[in-house]
Amino acid sequence: MSQRQDEQIESRQSSMSMKQRLHGVLERSDGGFSWFDIFIIVLICLNVVALIVETVDEIHDISPLAFRIFDTVSVAIFTVEYVLRLWSCTVEEKYGHPVWGRLRFALTPVLFIDLLAILPFYVALMAPVGLLDLRILRFLRAVRLLARIARLSRYSSGLRTSVGVIHAKRAELITVIVFLSILLLMASSLMYFAETEAQPDKFANIPQSMWWSIITLTTVGYGDAVPVTVTGRFLAGVIAILGIGLFALPAGILGSGFMDEMNRRRQGPTLCPHCQKEIHE
Amino acid sequence: MSQRQDEQIESRQSSMSMKQRLHGVLERSDGGFSWFDIFIIVLICLNVVALIVETVDEIHDISPLAFRIFDTVSVAIFTVEYVLRLWSCTVEEKYGHPVWGRLRFALTPVLFIDLLAILPFYVALMAPVGLLDLRILRFLRAVRLLARIARLSRYSSGLRTSVGVIHAKRAELITVIVFLSILLLMASSLMYFAETEAQPDKFANIPQSMWWSIITLTTVGYGDAVPVTVTGRFLAGVIAILGIGLFALPAGILGSGFMDEMNRRRQGPTLCPHCQKEIHE
Amino acid sequence: MSQRQDEQIESRQSSMSMKQRLHGVLERSDGGFSWFDIFIIVLICLNVVALIVETVDEIHDISPLAFRIFDTVSVAIFTVEYVLRLWSCTVEEKYGHPVWGRLRFALTPVLFIDLLAILPFYVALMAPVGLLDLRILRFLRAVRLLARIARLSRYSSGLRTSVGVIHAKRAELITVIVFLSILLLMASSLMYFAETEAQPDKFANIPQSMWWSIITLTTVGYGDAVPVTVTGRFLAGVIAILGIGLFALPAGILGSGFMDEMNRRRQGPTLCPHCQKEIHE
Amino acid sequence: MSQRQDEQIESRQSSMSMKQRLHGVLERSDGGFSWFDIFIIVLICLNVVALIVETVDEIHDISPLAFRIFDTVSVAIFTVEYVLRLWSCTVEEKYGHPVWGRLRFALTPVLFIDLLAILPFYVALMAPVGLLDLRILRFLRAVRLLARIARLSRYSSGLRTSVGVIHAKRAELITVIVFLSILLLMASSLMYFAETEAQPDKFANIPQSMWWSIITLTTVGYGDAVPVTVTGRFLAGVIAILGIGLFALPAGILGSGFMDEMNRRRQGPTLCPHCQKEIHE
């Protein structure tokens, strides 16, 4: 073995170990927060607050430059973070390949959201001025804000629990969703046929009367579309009483699943009362 | 035994077995879906979407002919399906009689809905023009759409579970419904006497003030009928607080029954994966 | 013993036994319904329907006389029933005294409601015309209708269960009611101070802003009183989120108590797993 | 030991024992109510009623002097009570130091609220007239009323239970609150981008569209801000259905925790009345 090869291996090893340390900091898997995580969380929170507060003209107009600088600095930090995550991901075996591994890592939902949080900045920077009309600019602003809020969910154990619950209860949820869709279609069609003549502006067609159905069945009840005919009110009363119980179901399923999941996480494994071995649910 | 008799029996047997195979495809009883079921479900779904989207004038006017053709083709397929179901039902012992068995099968709720889904098409086709004024045409359209949505429920295990739950909890439900009716009548009468003088248009009579009661007790709260007198508001506050808890009951009973039923169907007794003994929860 | 005394005793005994049979029919205590109960329930139901439908002018004007006759006949039957109940109640030991026993029986809530259901008829009949202005007449009509609806509750096992539940959970309910009253007062006062300047007509004083609090905390949300100031909206948001959970509590307590009570009634007594004797809860 | 020292000790002891008796009356720790507690509760209740009723001009104008006198007398009693509490608190070891102990006792939440209930009176009395403009006077009135309502919570076991529940469930609550905040931000941002162009007055900026989110997700649904665009209504429908289940969670967690806590306080382990063994439910 030549000395050069040795050096290469050594440098690769030290680079590997630096990569590994970096990867350990960036992608903690034990559920706790590193100092780096906390720094990023605080930065994202400040960022989200800035982007939200910026929409209030009175506040934005105090110092548009300050908002611009803060956004630029944040994007710079997020970009470095993104590049480092992408560089160090090859430490993990499943993303081991320098090109395809990194690409597959970049396409995971978490990394994709990280990209969406910075991409609009560069698109707005690089696109020729003529192309960026108001609608596209607004769309970029929406993506930027939503992606940054979504980045917070990486650190929320509540969201991870929710995803777990939705996965665990998917059979019940699909059953209930199919059933509720039928109920929703029935309610919307009935109200359309009952009210369209009396209120052609509010129950003009069935998709529009679905707005009434959703707002009624969720008990929100804005009052912007309300039946006025006797038939319509009678049907609406029956739909309200029958439907609300059934519409409360998916909420109940998700809610109880959420509680179970939380208890399970806190309590540790269930043991069989007969043989005392752990029962995997 | 003459040859002719032999042939008759043979042909009857082969016809029987073809009928049985057809019946097996049309009416699967093991809870799974055959390729035929999936075809019909997709067709009904497309049909329902078409009938709903058709009510939006802008979409309907793009190509009224396309909607007409699609409806005619669908009805043709549904008619063939209906006739085949009726022809093959004699395979089942309880519908064995060629005439009375088929009639009794045709009057089961499921087949009756199948008929309602196609009948309006033929009524509109065959009726003399003079008889079909706008109201009857609208009624036929409503029946057509509602029956096709209802056809979907044949394939929804959620609906079957619901029917089971309502049956299992019927005693509680009747008790609660009687109680809630009394509450509803009380609330409506009280509000009528309190508000009719101040708002003779919104609380003109007790049936009309029932609209207020239902919308308030289900917490929908449109705001189209709202008490304005001091007495009315005081009563409404008491009714809202007292009544909402009691009105949430039937929802709770149905909801918990639904969950129990779903758990029961999926599980059977829980067994420990290590020692195979039953675990009493 | 003279013959006359003998006869008196005999007549008293036969009268007693007729009274007892009558009392048995009128006041069944085994939870079932006698033919007499069913007759009275149907009569009350028809009566309530008539009184409700009567408030719709279009229906009342078809035949005011029919409504009048039906009411008179009903009151006659209810009066006979009332008198018979009062006469036969002395069969029960606790109402044994011919005068005081009957008076105490007449003052039980159930009998008092029976009286209220018929009294307005006689008051309206006997009072000098000058005394009965519109307000008093309306009050009499309200009492008549509400008392007849209330009479139905005698036959509703749901109501009896509810009374049992409220009694069983009274400690929790009082705790929660005190707590919610404090919450309600806090919310109303905060919103009054926040909104009274901006909307002096909707938040004129604290009792009036209680209307907002109740309608918001029960999630009815009519939208007739809505905060418009930034402070008011911020407070309202916090109140809505914090308060709704707490306001759902009494409903939850009553609801779960109701379910427990129903299960208990259906299932029979709980047995101790150690000694197999019945546990009185 | 000189006689003088003896006397001093004796006087201190008798003073101590009087202090202790007073402290025992003022700060009962066994959960029951002394006659003094009941007197103060009744006085606070009357006071709160007076301050609330006073905001109704028609009632206040009947006799402004009566309200003034009642307030002055109440403040006098509350002041004496406050001073006695502060004087006698040194009986407790942790507040034993005559100065620092009393100061620390005065800064406990309960005593601080007691101070806030009387302080506004003295501020309004002593401040130079020029300083007290309407806004400050209103603020003082608000503090006075809110602090007196808050004083009632000292005697409400419901509030103590709630504080216990919030403490016991804090981990779940934080998880859920973080998750719901993300959901709230997402909903508000989405609706802002969807509706701001169509309704620039109601969805002018994201903080304003948070008002819509809170009122919709809590199912209050006033109807003062309602999406009108197709995109906005579609998003609102999805948010309503998805979000309501998740928003019901903190209520559910607090509610079930509240019930558990109440059961736990009342019961201790359940014993069989026959064999006195514990029954595991």
Overall mean pLDDT of chain A: 83
Radius of gyration of chain A, CA atoms, in whole angstroms = 27 Å
Q: Biggest interface, and residues per chain?
A: A-B, 45 and 48 residues
The quaternary structure here is homotetramer
Note the gap between the termini of chain A: 54 Å
- Unreliable parts of chain A: none
The structure class of chain A reads mainly alpha
By DSSP, the count of extended strands of chain A is 2
Helix and strand succession of chain A? HHHHHHHHHHHEE
Largest sheet of chain A: 2 strands, antiparallel
Shape of chain A: extended
For the biggest β-sheet of chain A, the strand order reads 1-2
Number of helices of chain A: 11
Into which percent range does the helicity of residues of chain A fall? Answer: over 70%
Please report which band the strand proportion of chain A falls in: under 5%, 5-15%, 15-25%, 25-35%, 35-45% or over 45%: under 5%
